Amino acid sequence: MSDFPVFPSGFEFGAATSAYQIEGATKEDGRGPSIWDTFSRRSGAVSDGSSGETACGHYHRHREDVALLAELGVSHYRFSVAWPRIQPSGSGPVNTRGLDFYARLVDDLLEAGVKPVLTLYHWDLPQPLEDAGGWRSRDTAERFAEYTALVAARLGDRVPRWITLNEPWCSAFLGYGNGEHAPGASEGTPALAAAHHLLVGHGLAMGALRAAGVQEAGIALNLDQVDPATPDPADVAAALRAETQRNLMWTDPLLKGCYAAAEADTWGELIERQDFRRDGDLALASAPMDFLGLNYYTPSTVRAAPWREPDPARRTAMDNRFEGVARPGVRHTAMGWPVVPDALRRLLTSLGDRYGALLPPLHITENGSAEHDAPAADGTVHDAERIAYLESHLRAASKALAEGVDLRGYTAWSLLDNFEWAHGYTKRFGLVHVDYETEARTPKDSYHWYKAAIAASRNRAG
Ligand code: IFM
Predict the structure, then answer these.
(1) Which of 44, 61, 275, 288 lies 20 to 30 Å from 430 when distance is taken between CA atoms?
(2) How far is the CA of 66 from the centre of ligand 1 (A)?
(3) Which among 295, 364, 367, 415 is the best mutation to test ligand 1's pocket, defined by most ligand atoms within 8 Å of the CB?
């Protein structure tokens, strides 16, 4: 008998991608420009100077990719809709040709027996909305709800699970805090306003999804398992600031309807200007969700640090008096991320400890690793490190279940090698290798391993 991690019957296994990372065809069928089209043209923004202009060519090869999913045996496929395909200028009537593409994808998935899980926003904001202020502006949250209603009106009857935002921490803090992601801004209070408007946008979108009668709706957060480097109170306080920025400023409004208790200590004077917050926002943000999605890759260990910029007028929202410390003695992936599977178990159990009955069922909506894999002479791709990563994290998830966590599913990132944002095509996360010259897809050893693990779990569950 195989030694795959054990899961209860009904546990869901899936694979994920996002629109800008795989689709290409950025100028086809009326799609408008997104902030990533603009940002990737900026010199030095993407390490290999690339963009998502062609990516994996999924826009034209989606049938082949659906066939790969069916063969893999996943219960669900998590993909995202590109807002600039649906509303090229970020508002106004629907671009039917854009929405038709996703309708075809959903139909093909359903026909193949794979449940579509749709993310509405995976970072590709229409550029005209950024030109009007982007997520710094409340208007973007309102436009997001209108866009959500358009997509839900067409696909709400066939897509059972909806995710409003993917990793709003990245949108707010990499987008407007340190400028590593589009739109590439490094700001203080405006980045905090962006975070707030993402929460408001999520709440408004939840309302639009409920109005459309969708079955399940929630959000995907990249929560961090943060540990202090030492028991020194200064490091413990630094860990709380890190947790506030990474986790609590999202989970407290979403699950408890309150702002994070340590926000003043985390942001100092930056959070004193709160004119972007309005009465009723917390009620919106805390609209009940059917699940909470968790994207997990690696944990953080932090210690206290001084303000990098003493003048609050010039400080960015990422300057929170903590810094990461190295974690020696464990393997690091090609991203340089320490591999610590037990941190996933701890993160899952700690959510229940903190939020109790307020916590909805959990889904791991992303987990995976970038490795230095390359095809062998015969074309096969032997990615033993990725298999070890997936197996150890599935085991950690299985342990969390045994400890009482209400975890319903696991989604591997990613089905395909793809455009890894500021790293361009230099980092490969796929279960399937993509030759970017020919767009040929080659399932790696990890694809075959995951397929066998899913089948073993189903057979055991009967
Ligand atoms: O590729 C990304 C994805 O778009 C969001 N979550 C993390 C992944 C790996 O960095």
Answers:
(1) 44
(2) 20
(3) 295
